[in-house]
């Protein structure tokens, strides 16, 4: 691929943004969608030049169009195409596949942005964000606690303290009192102190990744705007100058979560030693030290919660300041407290032996209870917000955020339980030498089979729904293709594709049922573990044979399923690390999940939009200022979301000189329903009023894209009538070979794409004003002025 040195916004080498006046230049800025592509494919030319950007995200042109602004008469047949390629932000490097392990953090971060639309409830909005941040904090503690369970409890405490288990694993021999013949590291406290390095290293790794990814992806300064252009009148925060730059909050949350992880490790080590020192006859000095350390741990935990609760996002200006030393000093203070705890635990004590499980088992129950209560309260707040401005299109009537937060907690529990279960099975080959993981984790594993049965039922319901829709669509397909009666198989395939695409709209019901069942089953598992303090198989002994058999089957099957799920997740990430095609597939997940800034969890995968949106905003604003020309932002799929976000960030005067062409767009179908506070009808309506013009293309066979659904009273219709897919039912003179069913891809192949682009450019021409309310002959929207011939 040919490359040139970076140029100024109009293609000049010095980058000067002098405006020579209206030149008639026209630019089409193409933004690709999920999965990414190459600039050669986007521009339809093997010779492309990078005009600005770097190896992560850049703007490309055809080699022949590098200086097109100086030759406007040469481009009267159409606009100069530019391609913004951002796929490396999500699927470029193999190490990004490891972000799959951060999936629960990403999910709970999404819950923050799923707040329903509201009016005049500022305190409730702040409470909503606070509750989601607390759920995110609990997930960090859960992850570190799971690492402590594996390293401290299962390996150092149980296996190393049991002769049979230590003999099977020679690498633990130096920690075993019997195998090492009373070696220096064989004391329980010293074993725990050494094993604590594992969760401590995990916490440090999360801190490092969060800091490094912030510097690589999210540290892009947004454009400065005049105060009068900051408000648009629309009900969305996406137009605010500081929306895509939240350095202070991310740094604040990073310090709090890092300190929480270190304090969790300190509590896991110190609680075991303090419990022994409180026994009768123990050394008084160590008992006092243990009580003092526990008090300091409680004070540290309170400080962490205070930091998380104290402040949310500031979006009306770029939040580039840093907090005072008190907040920034939390991680070093927590690390110092951890070091003191390790020294305290490593002190030699008479009669201290490791038996049973570590005393920290109730911590998992407390975490599960706290997460359930937080989700329930969050649901109440979300429902109260929804009632102030009901939106029937909003997913789950405003409860999408709490449901997704519940899903994030469930994923965190499954991953934590899966690691603990597999580690226990590996260490305890006979299944009798060590007690194993906490009882609650076994109960949680036992509810996986019933949940899978429910998912199978939901899958059957979706399949029946798709069959019914496909049967009904056959008549519609026959009407649209009058000459297709001779190929009923083709008709069935088209109808089936439409039916499968319509299942996207059923996702809220599936998520609602799944999350409700997860909450109820999780509550049942917590109650069973707290009441019986035994595994389901043991607790059901003496009951009816069917009950006992079901309990043991669910326990065994759930243990294997929960472990298998985690192993598959790791294997998927490993394959993506080696296989570029698989890496791109996984990258599609992050295209959707990491669009939003890290507002609830600092260890979530980085937000690529904090790089992409400023890139697009700067390019659009500087090009229009330098040339005075016309610009169409042409966005496909997720690219249309980036295009809309960039348009919101433009100054008002620039926004009026820009047109939007979206196709295969999830702006309303996904984002408008799941994120109504930011992409609801009022927000999209305000964007429609403020850009010069906007047209949207979609197909009934597209499972992602859909109509924007803005009524005519908000201006000219945005949506064109659904495009035909396929273009022809059978072989015709124009299509001698069978036309493929395109679904979500290749919208440019439809003649309607070029037609709508010409109309948008014609509307933008300053010398040819176009009526805003003219109607298309097909009833799909504004026809615009006559299109000049090439």
Automatic annotation (TrEMBL):
Residues 1-26, 705-790 are annotated as: Disordered. InterPro entries: AB_hydrolase_fold (IPR029058). The chain crosses the membrane at residues 127-147, 192-211, 256-274, 286-308, 329-347, 367-386, 398-420, 440-463, 510-531, 557-577. It comes from the Bacteria. The keyword Magnesium does not apply. Residues 711-728, 754-776 have a biased composition (Basic and acidic residues). Keywords: Membrane, Transmembrane, Transmembrane helix. This is Lipase family protein. It comes from Streptomyces prasinosporus.
